[in-house]
Amino acid sequence: MKLHEPVPGGPCWAELGTSDLEAARRFYTALFGWRPETDSRQQAGGYTIARLGDAAVAALTPLYQPAQPVAWNVSFAVRDADTAVRQVAAAGGTVLQEPTDVFDSGRFAVAADPGGAVFQMWQGRSFPGAGLFNAPGALGWVELLTREPDLAADFYTTVFGWTVSASDRYPQWGIAGADFGGMVTMDDKFPHEVPAHWLPYFAVEDVDTAAVGTTDGGGTVLMEPTSPPDGPRIAVLRDPQGAMFGVYRAGDER
Fold first, then answer.
1. Per residue in 209-222, pLDDT tens?
2. CA–CA–CA angle 144, 149, 153 (5° rounding)
3. Residue 46, SS3?
4. Does 44 score more than 80 pLDDT?
5. Which CDD domains does UniProt cross-reference here (predicted)?
6. Above 90 in pLDDT, residue 100?
7. What is the mean pLDDT of residues 170-196?
8. Where are the alpha helices (DSSP H) in the chain?
9. CA nearest to 153, candidates 175, 177, 171
C-alpha cells in the first residue's frame, strides 16, 4: 500500500483473536519471524504485541467473549472515536462496542458496515498503531470482501472520506488517492455461511515459501499462490485455529 505510517482514516493495526494464543504465537513466529511480547498486566487479558525488531506490527489476543469468532481484525485510525461511532451509525452501520479507553494507549470502538463486515476504529494516544508497513512480516494491504459493494462504497467514503477507484474488476480504497486496500464482491463461489469481512495482507519475501510454511505449520492454503494481472503475487491462507489472512510479495505493492 502507498501508506507507510498510520494516518487518519487509514489502516493502522491488525489484531488476531484466537482460541489458542500459544499455538498462534508459534505459528506466526515461524511464518513471519515475529517476536511476540505479552502484556503482563492482568487487565490486559493476555494481549500480545508482535514485533519485528523494535517495531510493533500486529497483535494476538485470546477470545474475550464466547461468541467471538477466531479471526483477524483490521483497525482504522480516527481522530476521535466518539465522533467516528456517531458517523458510523448515521451512515447505516452498526456500533458493536462503544468507545473504550485502553490504558493510556488510545481509545477504540468496534463496528460493522451495512453489509456486516466488522472493523475496529482506533484513536491513538501513546500508541498510534503499527510502526512498520510494507516490509516482510508487516501489514501491507487490506481487502473488503462483501456482497454489497455499492453500499460499502457509500458507507466508507462517507465515514472515512476514502477515495475509491472506478474498476469493475477490483476497486481500490485510498486516502487522497494513496491506495491502501481493495474490494472483492462475494459471488456464488463464496459459501453462504462465509460472512462479509476485512482481510489483512502481510508482506513476505516469497509467497510460495509462505504457503508451504503455512501447511507445514498446520494451516491451510485457501487460494494457491497466483499472480493476478497488474498485481503482486498473492495467496490466501488460514492458520491452524481457522483465522484467514493474505500474503503478497514484498516490493510489489499496488
1. 999 999 999 999 99
2. 85
3. coil
4. no
5. SgaA_N_like
6. yes
7. 93
8. 21-32, 81-90, 149-160, 207-216
9. 171
If we measure between CA atoms, which residue out of 204, 205, 159, 165 comes closest to residue 181? 165
| Cell output for 77 | 485510525
Kindly report each contact of residues 101-109 with a partner whose C-beta sits within 8 Å and lies 24 or more positions away, as own/partner: 103/41, 103/43, 107/81, 107/82, 108/75, 108/81, 109/81, 109/84, 109/85
The pTM score is 0.96
Retrieve residue 104's grid coordinates: 493510556
Q: Which of 59, 89, 30 is nearest to 240 (CA)?
A: 30
pLDDT at res. 253: 66
The pLDDT of 169-182, averaged and rounded, is 93
| Nearest by Cα to 138 from 16, 237, 247 | 247
Q: Which helix (H) or strand (E) holds 248?
A: strand 244-249
240: left (phi over 0), alpha (psi -120 to 50) or beta: alpha
Question: Where does residue 6 rank: exposed (0-12), middle (13-18), buried (19+ CB within 10 A)?
Answer: buried
Spell out the residues 6+ positions from residue 83 whose beta carbon is closer than 8 angstroms to its own. Answer: none
Q: At what angle do helices 207-216 and 21-32 cross, to 10 degrees?
A: 150
Helix (H) or strand (E) holding 246: strand 244-249
Q: What is the pLDDT of residues 78-89, one digit of tens each?
A: 999 999 999 999
Q: Average the pLDDT over 86-95 and give the result.
A: 98
**DSSP letters spanning 204-229:** ES-HHHHHHHHHHTT-EEEEEEE--T
Backbone Cα Rg of the chain: 17
